[in-house]
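FAQ: What does a multi-protein file look like?

Like this. Sequence, then tokens, then the next protein.
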Amino acid sequence: MTTLHTHCDGDTMPFVREFVRDPLGVASLVPSGGALARRVTAPIAASGQPVVVELGPGTGAFTRVIQAALGGRGLHLALEVNEQFTRLLAARFPGVDVIPADARDLPEVLGGRGIDRADVVVSGLPWAAFGAQQQTGILDAITGALQPGGAFTTFAYVHARWSGPARRFRRLLDTRFEEVVVGRTVWANVPPALVYHCRRPR
């Protein structure tokens, strides 16, 4: 995203309000842009009936792209703890199963819906704002919920990449996945971000 006009007009103000209310939980003044959303959602298969889980969807920057990629196929679940965002997402995306739940509850959420494993997990969570226990708990939930050949993608803001929590998270990824590839920086996003492509949970 080069300027704010790449967001839907209704996205920015709810994001700003929730950032002011809970800056650590929201972690950004604006939603992610289209260029970043396309990189993060790239693992979604173009055919079949994939189960796609979205963690921390916010106002739906990734949700919109996931829905377009699925085109009515498969299942799309979105776990969000912010009540304002949950209501907005449910109204905006009727084809998405929006669930007010913590990411650490992912295996239980899937089990409660009769779903064995997810094919793709996409995360918009603010990892650098989490402590070690929370990072570990969420990653354990993700690896426990993914198919053996499943994919997990998330992103990090370039300016925060070298902070202690961000570096710890990067190390944790290597302990949880056999393959972790760091994508090229998405300079068009505000702020610039890079994507972690993770496959084959350990």
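And here is the next protein:
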Amino acid sequence: MSSDHSSAAEEIDAIIAKAGGWRGDTLAALRRAVIGADAGIVEEIKWRKPSKPEGVATWVCEGNVCLADVLKSAVRLTFPQGARLDDVDGLFNSRLDGATVRAIDFSEQMSVDEQAVRRLVRLAVERNRKGAGVATT
């Protein structure tokens, strides 16, 4: 793991700690599921801006696989190519009207089905490896 990836992991640790409570626990569970899905997945921090200086936790493997945002009432796991994935477990519950992007909003009352998330992540990685992924910047 390069120092860039180590620092990204540390920054994601900090995002989880800052979120705290159920949001932090949810983000930590999502992270475990995502990085456990494929050995080629790398953690990165992207989309830093003045309103979000910590950036966005992003998982990449030959293109963006998914990213996590901590919202006021949910933790959102967004798949840039989600509309093109076979969501056999019916996880997607947000951003359903777009042509490509799909997301899963986890509220405080929801638990993370890590196995189902891993299945979806594996599909996204497979899609990226077939050359249908999105740019990583």
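Q: Is there any per-entry metadata?
A: Some entries carry free-text notes. For the entry above: The longest strand covers residues 64-70.
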